[in-house]
Specification:
307 residues; 13% strand; two-stranded antiparallel ribbon; 12 helices; alpha/beta; TIM Barrel; binds NADP nicotinamide-adenine-dinucleotide phosphate; seven-stranded parallel sheet
Length: 307
């Protein structure tokens, strides 16, 4: 599909465009999802050469992992990079738990649901308040030595928490909120990640659909919790510039935005989520978009206020 990228210091290699699956079985997070649509969109991605599938216990409280595990039976497991996450503890009202024993059990449970004997990337989904982060990672490192996981990841950790977790240089990858309209990670953590050979995967790369260009001025209410009205209007202005570039290249706004991430070496793999197989197919066409340096810089500039 595309050139291969290596995940941190691990032996895991993948490609630059993966798949996010919180709408695969994520019934606790989104209304009106059908398991069959979820299974079909994962199949579409794998049929079209996607390597990295990003899931989590929290997506359907195990349902997403179960659906993916079922689909994977029809594919060559060795060609797939399976990433999952855990931390939310049902016995603590789904608050985060990073206790070593909890994480080890969470990996065992995920292996069962995914019907596999190894997980390529296991992320601690959220930090808790009590566990020393290097102890949590040491537990994952034991699982790595035992071959149950192949790379160690963190998600939603602050830079200080990442540093504490990475005391022994065992962290391979970080997954955090990042998009053209939420660029804090660029300043907050990219330098540390690059200096320490830690890969970066952004979540919400399409800002939950806003960066596909399918929403207009009348849809502000949907995004009112995230953006002020002036910020929202600023995003729509940026998107009109992207649309001009997209129209000229005969591609979509979403494909152009995804191509912008693909062109950035600080981003290891982009995992746009999808609701159905058509969105997967369309997003994969981003791989065919090659942005000129001028177009890349113009998009960067159009969303500079979100740095
Ligand atoms: N680590 C974490 O804490 C964390 C948190 C959130 C997400 N994630 C991961 O990151 C992945 C990506 O985030 P996300 O899926 O929430 O948000 P996203 O990638 O920013 O947006 C995905 C959504 O945009 C819409 N969309 C996608 N492609 C489209 C297209 N071609 N045309 C029109 N609409 C399109 C779909 O929603 P509609 O059809 O409903 O509009 C889709 O579900 C998730 O799937 C999950 O694996 C991780």
């Amino acid at each position: 599909m595309t050139a291969s990228v290596t995940v941190g210091k691990s032996a895991v290699t993948t490609t630059k465009l993966g798949l996010g699956t919180n709408k695969v079985g994520g019934h606790n997070l989104f209304a009106n999802l059908k398991d069959e649509d979820g299974a079909a969109l994962v199949r579409q991605a794998l049929d079209d050469g996607v390597v990295m599938i990003d899931t989590a216990y929290m997506y359907g409280l195990g349902r997403s992992e179960e659906i993916i595990g079922q689909v994977l039976k029809d594919y060559d497991r060795s060609k797939i990079v399976l990433a999952t996450k855990a931390a939310q503890d049902p016995e603590r009202d789904y608050q985060a738990n990073n206790d070593p024993a909890f994480l080890k059990q969470a990996v065992e449970d995920a292996l069962q649901r995914l019907q596999t004997d190894y997980i390529d990337i296991f992320y601690i989904h959220f930090p808790d308040d009590q566990t020393p982060k290097d102890e949590a990672v040491a537990a994952l490192n034991e699982l790595k030595q035992a071959g149950k996981i192949r790379a160690i990841g963190l998600s939603n950790f602050s830079l200080d928490q990442i540093k504490e977790a990475n005391k022994n240089q065992q962290v391979d990858i970080v997954e955090d909120h990042y998009s053209l309209v939420y660029r804090a990670a660029e300043q907050a953590e990219w330098a540390y990640l690059q200096d320490n050979d830690i890969s970066f995967v952004p979540y919400f790369p399409l800002a939950s659909g806003l960066l596909t260009g399918k929403y207009g001025p009348d849809d502000y209410e949907k995004f009112a919790k995230q953006f002020t009205r002036p910020a929202y209007d600023n995003i729509l202005t940026g998107l009109s510039l992207v649309k001009k570039i997209a129209d000229r290249e005969n591609v979509t706004v979403a494909q152009t935005i995804l191509a912008w991430y693909l062109a950035n070496p600080a981003i290891t793999t982009v995992i746009p989520g999808a609701r159905n197989a058509d969105q997967v197919r369309s997003n994969l066409q981003a791989l065919t978009v090659s942005l000129s340096a001028d177009d890349y810089a113009a998009i960067d500039q159009a969303f500079a206020d979100f740095k």
